[in-house]
Amino acid sequence: MLRAAVIKRAFMPRFARHHASSSSEFADLTTNLTYVNDEEEAYTRASTNMKKFLPPLRTGKKGIDLIHDPLFNKGTGYKHAERDRLGLRGLVPPRRLNMKLQLEKLYSLYQEEENPLRKNIFLSELQNRNETLFFRLLIDYIEEMAPVVYTPTVGLVCQKFGSIFRRSRGMYFSAEDKSQFGSMVYNWPCDDVQVIVVTDGSRILGLGDLGVNGMGIPIGKLALYTAAGGIDPRKVLPVVLDLGTNNETYLKDPYYLGMQHRRLEGEAFYSVVDEFMRAVRHRWPKALVQFEDFSSDHAADVLHAYRLKQLCFNDDIQGTGATVLAGALSACLRVNTPLKEQRILVLGAGSAGLGVSTTLLQGMLQEGAKLDDARKRFYVFDQFGLLGESRTELTSGQQFFARPDLTDKTSLLDVIKQ
């Protein structure tokens, strides 16, 4: 009876399926069942309450080209009819394994990896050959795998990026290719890119200048955007702007994958960034550009240059700032004291620290505080201590929060005591 109900539902017209899903006759039988292969095999799934009827995905690829494309490859999951239609007979093992069995096998292999780096490499190799299985595995075990795909493991992945590099993912825009960016963007196959995460590798997490090895950050972040946010993996683009590196190790490393010269500064830096942004605006005018891990001396200036011209944001400045502001406002409600009356100590004067400070200051202004009064409530520290006005070589953002009334480089403990 169960088998008959599943088969009957599989051949019902689309409009009839919609009504049947709410009827008592089929509700109990179909809520947790999915018709999966030619042998009328059914298996239980956790997320079957939402039924979507999607049009078939069209691709001009067949045979070996199809199974070598990670976006369309289904591994051992092709049905017999698909193998005939797509020219796959003899190119894949004869027995079909449904997604449930493939996921069980992959998760077992994943657990056998001895450390987070090896687990990350395992997942990267899976993504390079079968993105459907990669994202299904990541979604099903998101709490366990998110720290492997992104922080904290991604820091080590970036440090070893050159040695574990197997297959190119995303795009690299080098200063050596300047004047060619407008044509280079057409080398990317997707005409409808929706999200671009771009870094220049100058300040990767807390690791400093990693150059093109920072590509691990856009790749990992976009994987989470797809798994957690549902963004189409075909419509994301990780990017590195290779403007050189000041990392002495990479300048001498014969296997470093980026350009081995000192970082461009000043007008040379901004001209490369500007050409990249213009190329993106021309090819994908509706794409969201996320600036990621730019050094503090460039991050704010780059954001301000394009925030009113293109759809863009800086995650270190705005994303982190918005998150901290939300937490601060919630805490202020608990203590029944408005944000504008709080004194804020910020440990860190990089892009994230200044972004948090700026966002909190804007929150105070929203509550009616005056700019000078709000600014006096901030005490920003870097690795040397409090930022004072007497300090030289501060960025414009750091100068804004530098204290005129306290000694430069005062320790955190001394400021708290005062």
TrEMBL record:
Binding site for (S)-malate: R203
Alphabetized InterPro entries for the sequence: Aminoacid_DH-like_N_sf (IPR046346), Malic_N_dom (IPR012301), Malic_N_dom_sf (IPR037062), Malic_NAD-bd (IPR012302), Malic_OxRdtase (IPR001891), NAD(P)-bd_dom_sf (IPR036291)
One of the record's GO molecular function terms: metal ion binding
Binding-site residues for a divalent metal cation, renumbered to this chain: E292, D293, D316
Ranges where the Malic enzyme N-terminal domain occurs: 127-307
Domain of life: Eukaryota
NCBIfam families per UniProt: PRK13529.1 (NF010052)
PANTHER family in the record: MALIC ENZYME-RELATED (PTHR23406), NADP-DEPENDENT MALIC ENZYME (PTHR23406:SF32)
This protein's name: Malic enzyme
Organism: Aphanomyces astaci
